[in-house]
Design goal:
It contains 17 helices and 58 strands. By secondary structure, the protein is an alpha+beta fold. It has an eight-stranded parallel beta sheet, with helices on one face. It has an eight-stranded antiparallel beta sheet with strand order 16-18-19-22-23-26-29-28. A six-stranded antiparallel beta sheet has the order 49-39-50-56-53-54, with no helix packed on it. It comes from Gigaspora margarita.
């Protein structure tokens, strides 16, 4: 009988699974009476302003590339720096920024929304408009971004059970109460964003609004995401007068929330957004991969294996096929990547710094990744991050410490790294050829091949309206992923001259391993020259006075240019010309910087080749004017051509309203070269250039070079003071340890203090304190230090897990023998236990994980060895975040801002050392900015606080927490950026206050506390800190100059 029953079960089971899948699918579709159509972008009303097809966006009818970078205003606590950072985005070639708007940053308590000072969103969007930057607005409500609770306010965690509608990890159920709070946020933030929409404001910047963040529709093809969640938020957005397109970002290309035809029964109830976007993170740092299991991780960065090219190829080279394969609107909208990896973050308990992260990826990674997605037809992409910033205060979640440098294009302290300089070369190319590059199709049978494998990616052809059939310009994407790492190879080009038979000729090419470039082919210059193919990288095209064309190329004696027909070449570059076939002429140049002029008998003008050395290319800036932002008298027909090109200095921004170049240059940068695409004002006087003696190229010598010698960036630290936190004078309240912890009391940032007292009556000769907590604890018994430990894990489900829920939270405890610290048995005075617990941050509720309520503070504690009659009563104290203007600017110690008595000290902490029995000791000192006020407008000299010693510290700069230091090894950071906008200059002194405690005695000679400049690698341009080396006697340090930039305005009228 068993066999027939089993057979019957096996017959029914598939049908049951199908039925369950259909139920799950339909249950995810939801039932709110909100349709895709009523939330869709109104093309009939706004299409003349903003529209799209499968290729790109159209802004005022103009095909437009969206070259965007992520910017986190909430990671820049000094608003005065927003402008200077965003100007560096413009200098890098970006025309757009993506902005997360952080709910919790603006709302410390229910019903309170702050949009002033450093949270002034209206100011930020006005700034973007003044800088001619489009904005992709991402108001969440969930933003992730390695922020506490993924950007949700702490009070929301207390109010609702299902944050992000999660019942538990991997399953959602729509929660109207949670949606009501999300609506409250949208109704406060969206009206501000709405004022800046391109569709409603003349000169508005917001071109699209993102709904939610990294929200799966399906996970491994299993229905997961709630369509009602998207419905509700989209409808609220429209009700708040958001009328630009809505988009979301799949965690990867999974086809989530695409507008689909309702004629398919399986699509009924489906909700989709206007534009389909997906994120791409490609290669991860070996020690901090986001994988749920991280056993046997190689901690030492010197032992990391290089990233594998095949991982990049596997991740990126099928994007177009996969995205278009989703069909429906995904096949009709631009390929859009709201987050394209531009580095990686780091976390606690690791040995490496962001300098190691930078070295792992190298200078060319971001450009290579970007050009790889361009090869897939992507015309909308945003690099995450371009500038990372700082997890000042407690902004960051458990997965990130103070620095959020991200090894990004712009380093934390403002340096433009080689990664930006490399990326800018690629951006300059596509922007200067945007009239052809914005709309392309993949060529099924490319006309090029190579002599070695894995150097040629694919080829695309321009399909712009002004391109005739058969004359399509070709863009060939080269990327050296060759296993033998050969930099030199042959490119074989198939070409047919008129009615003649097709022939194949070869060109030499030079391309370093793990780098890329886009080669130009089948292109006719404005002068009439026909370029068949170029293996010499062209980094920039300039149309000069509508007559001549200029190409900027690297000094390269390997790459070649193949022209149709006979050409003549003159200039100071020495050419080599060889003829192939009937009329193919191949030109190459010697390995020097200079210029060449190329003409043919039929040319209407000149093609100029400007060969720049690497040091000049790394500073190549091109000033592009988007037609949308251009003044009415500008010639928008050649908007793809830059109006001004410069090289020679690290940062250039063009203030078009005042016609002024804002320049920043370093010690070794003495002059700037300026190329004008149109004749400059007669009032402008510059020198001619000896290497490029052309009428449209000028040179300006700088004269302020000697100013930095007057600055010594190691100020004296004076007026030291100290005090100790008196635990007895804090305001304690009794709690039930099992049910009333830090989150319930809104003690969610920084530290929490616990206290229990018990009689001196023991039942055993040994008394043990057992404690299970998150994430760090420091224990004192009767005023004496007992010990401390950290509970943190990179493993999913494990105690202190940085990602995902904890299933084994009971395993995170530790037992301490406290016998020697107790009062004698029978003593009348009670014992006092103080436990200082630090919370590294609330988990961010990422993807499918329901982890924002992972335990914090003390989970459980017990004291063994006391008599049975002993009942432990616990008290708690901390800082109630609801009472703060900014819930992230607190150490959690209640007396941090109280006006208490300080002890003056002739010497500082490095003379006294740190004694664990002192408990929490506060140190304060003052210093004057080493740069005199008279230099403030012409120099920028960023400072850092350097700490060494096995102690823990929260660091306040003029009242703002700018760092958290863990000298015991819990964190690798020792250098803390002192934000320029928080510093005072001139006669005003700056104050640094340090909250200090330690798990071991730290001797004075082991401690370093000093302020100095950023001594960095300004040769390779990585921006990495140079570790100060010592001489033979171990006492003398070699002199290393700090990075200082000079600022100068160059009027062009």
């Amino acid at each position: 009988m068993v066999i027939p029953e089993l057979a019957a079960l096996l017959t029914v089971l598939p049908a049951g699974l199908v039925a369950f899948y259909v139920w799950l699918l339909q249950s995810r579709k939801g039932s709110l009476p909100i349709t895709t159509a009523e939330c869709a972008y109104d093309k009939n009303k706004y299409g003349d302003i903003l529209n799209w097809d499968k290729f790109c966006l159209y802004i005022h009818g103009k095909p437009t590339l969206i070259i965007s970078g992520e910017f986190h205003y909430f990671r820049v606590p000094d608003k005065s720096r927003w402008e200077s950072i965003l100007k560096k985005y413009r200098a890098g070639g970006f025309n757009c920024v993506r902005l997360y708007f952080h709910w919790g940053y603006h709302s410390p308590d229910e019903g309170i929304y702050n949009f002033d000072d450093n949270r002034d969103i209206d100011y930020l969007l006005n700034l973007c408009e003044s800088l001619n930057l489009y904005v992709l607005a991402a108001p969440g409500p969930y933003i992730c971004a390695e922020t506490q609770a993924g950007g949700f306010p702490f009070w929301v965690l207390d109010k609702v059970k299902r944050v992000r509608h999660m019942s538990f990890t991997g399953f959602k159920k729509y929660d109207p109460e949670f949606s009501a709070y999300q609506k409250q946020w949208f109704e406060n933030i969206l009206p501000i964003i709405a004022k800046h929409q391109i569709t409603t404001k003349q000169g508005g910047c917001v071109i699209a609004v993102q709904i939610e963040n990294e929200l799966f529709d399906k996970v491994i093809k299993i229905p997961y995401g709630l369509h009602d969640e998207m419905r509700f938020l989209s409808k609220v957005a429209r009700d708040c007068e958001i009328n630009v397109p809505l988009f979301t970002n799949d965690p990867e290309e999974m086809g989530s929330f695409i507008i689909k035809s309702s004629s398919n029964p399986l699509n009924r109830g489906n909700f989709g957004l206007d534009l389909y976007g997906f994120d791409k993170y490609i290669v991860f740092v070996p020690a901090s991969s986001p994988t749920p299991w991280a056993f046997n991780v190689v901690q030492d960065p010197k032992k990391w294996k290089p990233w594998k090219p095949k991982d990049v190829a596997k991740s990126l080279d099928v994007l177009e096929q996969k995205t278009r394969g989703f069909g429906y609107e995904a096949a009709k909208t631009p390929i859009f990547i709201p987050e394209l990896q531009g580095g990686w973050f780091s976390t606690y308990k690791l040995q490496h710094t962001f300098d190691d992260v930078y070295n792992f990826y190298g200078d060319a990674f971001t450009r290579t990744a970007y050009e790889s997605v361009l090869a897939q037809g992507c015309t909308m992409a945003s690099i995450y991050m371009v500038y990372g910033g700082t997890n000042w205060g407690t902004v960051g979640d458990v997965d990130g410490y103070t620095s959020y440098d991200y090894s990004a294009c712009i380093r934390e302290y403002g340096y433009t790294s080689s990664r930006m300089r490399e990326l800018r070369l690629g951006i300059n190319f596509i922007r200067s050829f945007s009239d052809l590059f914005t709309k392309t199709e993949r060529v099924k049978n490319p006309n090029v091949s190579t002599s070695i494998k894995n150097v040629f990616n694919l080829q695309r052809k321009s399909v712009m309206k002004n391109v005739k059939l058969g004359d399509e310009v070709l863009f060939s994407f080269f990327r050296n992923f060759n296993e033998q790492q050969n930099p030199v190879f042959q490119v074989y080009v198939k070409y047919k001259e008129g009615q003649r038979r097709e022939q194949t000729f070869s060109l030499r090419c030079y391309l370093q391993y793990k780098t890329s470039f886009i080669a130009l082919g089948n292109y006719t210059t404005i002068t009439g020259l026909k370029l068949i193919f170029s293996t010499l990288p062209i980094y920039l095209r300039v149309i000069q006075d509508r007559v001549n064309e200029i190409w900027i190329v690297p000094v390269n004696d390997v790459g070649e240019l193949a022209f149709q027909g006979e050409v003549t070449v003159d200039g100071n570059l020495i050419p080599s010309i060889r003829k192939v076939g009937h009329a193919i002429h191949i030109v190459s140049f010697n390995d020097v910087g200079g210029f060449a002029r190329i003409r043919s008998a039929d040319s209407s003008g000149d093609l100029y080749i400007l060969a720049l050395r690497n040091e000049s290319l790394s500073t190549l800036h091109a000033i592009f004017e988007e037609p949308y932002w251009a003044k009415t008298n500008n010639d928008t027909n050649i908007s793809h051509s830059p109006s001004i090109v410069t090289w020679g200095i690290q940062d250039v921004y063009f203030d078009s309203s005042n016609s002024v170049l804002e320049t920043q240059y370093g010690d070794q940068e003495h002059d700037i070269t300026i190329l004008f695409s149109r004749e400059p004002s007669k009032h402008v006087r510059f020198q001619s250039h000896p290497t490029y003696p052309l009428p449209f190229i000028s040179k300006k010598q700088f004269t302020a070079g000697e100013k930095t010698s007057e600055i010594h960036l190691v100020p004296k630290l004076v007026r030291w003071r100290s005090r100790i936190t008196d635990f007895n004078n804090l305001e304690w309240k009794i709690i039930d340890l099992k049910n009333g912890g830090p989150v319930e009391n809104y003690y969610a940032s920084g530290h929490i203090l616990y206290n229990t007292r018990f009689s001196s009556n023991y039942s055993s000769s040994k008394v043990y304190l057992s404690i299970n907590m998150r994430h760090r604890c420091t224990i004192f018994v009767n005023g004496r230090f007992v010990g401390g430990h950290t509970t943190f894990s990179r493993q999913l489900f494990f105690p202190g897990s940085k990602n995902g829920p904890e299933l084994f939270k009971s395993l995170g405890g530790k037992k301490y023998d406290i016998t020697q610290f107790l009062r004698p048995n029978g003593d009348e005075e009670k014992n006092s236990v103080i436990i200082l617990v630090e919370n590294w941050g609330i988990n961010r509720q990422a993807v499918i994980f329901n982890d924002c309520r992972n335990p914090r503070g003390i989970i459980s504690s017990n004291i063994d060895g006391l008599i049975k009659e002993t009942n432990l009563t616990w008290s708690i104290c901390g800082v109630d975040l609801r009472k703060l203007d900014n819930p992230f600017n607190t150490s959690g110690i209640p007396d941090e801002n109280k006006n208490l008595e300080w002890n003056e000290s002739e010497k500082g902490i490095s003379s006294y050392g740190v004694i664990p029995n002192d408990g929490i000791k506060w140190w304060s000192f003052r210093f004057s900015h080493p740069m005199e006020s008279k230099f403030k407008d012409i120099l920028n000299a960023p400072l850092r606080l350097v700490l060494q010693g096995a102690f823990t510290s929260y660091i306040f700069l003029n009242g703002t927490i700018i760092g958290r230091y863990y000298g015991n090894g819990d964190c690798a950071q020792h250098d803390y950026y002192l934000m320029d906008g928080l510093l005072k200059f001139g006669d005003e002194e700056n104050q640094i206050t340090m909250m200090v405690y330690s798990w071991e005695t730290v001797n004075p000679e082991e401690i370093i506390v000093e302020i100095r400049g950023w001594e960095i690698d300004d040769v390779k341009k990585t921006g990495n800190l140079i570790k100060l080396k010592k001489g033979v006697d171990e006492d003398i340090e070699f002199e290393v100059k700090p990075w200082i930039v000079r600022k100068e305005l160059i009027p062009l009228t």
